Amino acid sequence: MKYLLSVCRLTVFSLLVVLTTNLQADMILQRPVDVLNGLNNGTIQATVTPAFSMNTINNVFDGNNYTMAGVQSQDLIITLAFTDTVNFKRSKVYFWSQGVWSLETAMTESDLNSGTGSYQLLVNQRSYSAFAADSVDLGNQLALYVRFKAHDPQTTIYLGEWELGGEVALTSLYIYPRPVKVIPGTTLQLKVVALDAENNTYEYPAEIEPLVWSSSQGSVATVGEEGDLTGISLGTTTVNVRSLSGSVSGSVLAEVVNDFTSVKAPTKTVKVALVLQNPVIDSVNNRRIHQVWNWANPVTLVQEIIEDFRYASHNVIDFQIVETIDDDQIFTMIDSTFMTMDTLIYYLTPSNAKLYGRSTPGTMQYMAEIEGRIRFNYNAMVDYYDFDTKRNNGTIDEIWVYTFPFGGMYESQLMGPGAFWYNSPPLAHPGLNKLLSVMGWNYERGVAEALHSVGHRAESAIRYVYGRWEVTNPDPNPWELFTRIDMVVPGGAHIGNIHFPPNGTSDYDYANTNYVQTYADNWKRYPVLLDQTRTVNRSEWSYPGGDYQRGFMRWWFGHLPYFEGVYEGVLNNWWHYIVDYEEAVALAASTPWVGIEGASKSSLPHNFRLDQNYPNPFNPSTTFSFSLPRAENITLKIYDVLGRLVETVVDKKMTAGNHQINFNASHLASGLYFYQLNTTDFSLSRKMLLVK
After folding, report:
1. Which residue spans within 207-316 are E strands per DSSP?
2. Other CB atoms within 10 Å distance of the CB of residue 121
3. pLDDT attached to residue 596
4. What is the per-residue pLDDT across 395-429, written as a single tens digit (0 to 9) for each?
5. CB 14 within 8 A of CB 34
6. Domains of the chain by range and CATH?
7. Is the separation of the CB atoms in 622 and 665 below 8 Å?
């Protein structure tokens, strides 16, 4: 998605934006008050008398004339109570029937009811026709209470839409990303948002009035008509931008320097509870599982993991083990029964040959990978060690579990309210008030594999932040740029993903010797992404002993943005979302843009969108993500390759915003399927592949 940064107090831009210029040379945008969003977030309270007998109040404010709400045999009264004073200049209605309507306002409820004091009758018994918009200019109105009345002589009222029209005066333009810096011979694509007098941010309507760019020192840097700034020689220049009419403008000082790195975010300590499923199974020699099998000591692995993340995060993240649990409790289950020490010894004693054997019935590997009979009971572990209380009160931030092979754990698991896909389906827990991350590692493997697991966790978290992961999208978001590889976008590789380095041509292709062009070096300056390139191959991430996987993991994590500030509503420190998603979201919402105190943004999407399901291919669970710019009755259905309906996943009204639906296809056969999102006006479809 594109990060449209408008709006805090009113709604997103109407599809029909009216643009004028006032005497003070401000740009005026006419736009509806976002009543629906206010109803959803509690800043507006609505009272409907009598209650709608057809549909709900949301249908009246969803921006669609053809989704109505109605009452029978009575007049209709809608009263809106605003938390903050509302400013509007017009009222527009759209009915499916004929009758008359009135509009009243006041600053107090008592004045509104008594018709005294601040009470105003703005529209009095105005006739309306069926299936025709009726709009009244009211002048500048301020109110805390607004009451709408409708009367239909036929006794049935069908109200398609009621809109209060407001205005926003845009006073200036803001150029970003900041600080604006380039290197000689490189180009930076500049962007613009509009500001009002209170420094709220809005998408600039360039489709209505183009922008004009200029540079005060063309010998230092030039700027193209699309805002592309190119460094010529060392020095400074002022970059100016204005609307074609000159009604709004902005400027910023740009520097051309030899090189630079963005400012690092402060170090965040992450408190970890370490759980070891590594009991003594050789009582004669007092040997634990890892010793019996000659595997690495999990405590040593943890120490190396912590050091690798300190290095890769540039010390922005400091994992600290605050609690270590090393007992005989086993939370791995076979079918519905917890493994006991006796069963553990039976399967983990090498001479019994009951651990390995993917094609051998009766082994743990066969039960885990073929029969699906082994699982790890996360909730039982959380309950037993009181981890929910510890997470809620801040004693711990997350859990790392080191266990034996085929122990039933996901690489990463997100638990708690609002959990989302984390390279595993989200898991609820009634005692958690916060999200809780749980890593599941296997001490048969090394540090590289543990870093790899956290990498998939990172991919899940950052994809969720941006709401999309389509590297070939013509308007890529930063995450899609970051993960581009040469095989998919020839000549356009950046850092790659956990399975594919920038030069990779297959899964885990970390030792590939081929050189490809990459934009990797630009990420040390994020969000200032220049077009600087060079070629790389495996030598870029080499690691002692030829462990190219561990080397690439360190290289990949080392390029994740770890900087101060926000860019288009997202923290420039992506690590924060990985270790504490909720805290990161709150911090991003409260962090102003550089040079804009009190700036705000809109969280509502501007367009209908259906993203590719993730993961895809999948087995057996996947997540559907879609965006609704307004509340809609929707269906999300799955069809087979013959077009037959397989399942209806969703059939209900959903609010405006970004949505994610988790789907478990364990009951379906492997194969290609189509999923389709239908709204009143849109139908969007995509393909997905279930591989069992």
Report:
1. 211-215, 221-223, 228-231, 235-243, 249-256, 268-276, 280-282, 287-288
2. 12
3. 56
4. 999 999 999 999 999 999 999 998 999 999 999 99
5. no
6. 33-169 (2.60.120.260), 268-446 (no CATH), 468-560 (no CATH), 609-690 (2.60.40.1930)
7. yes
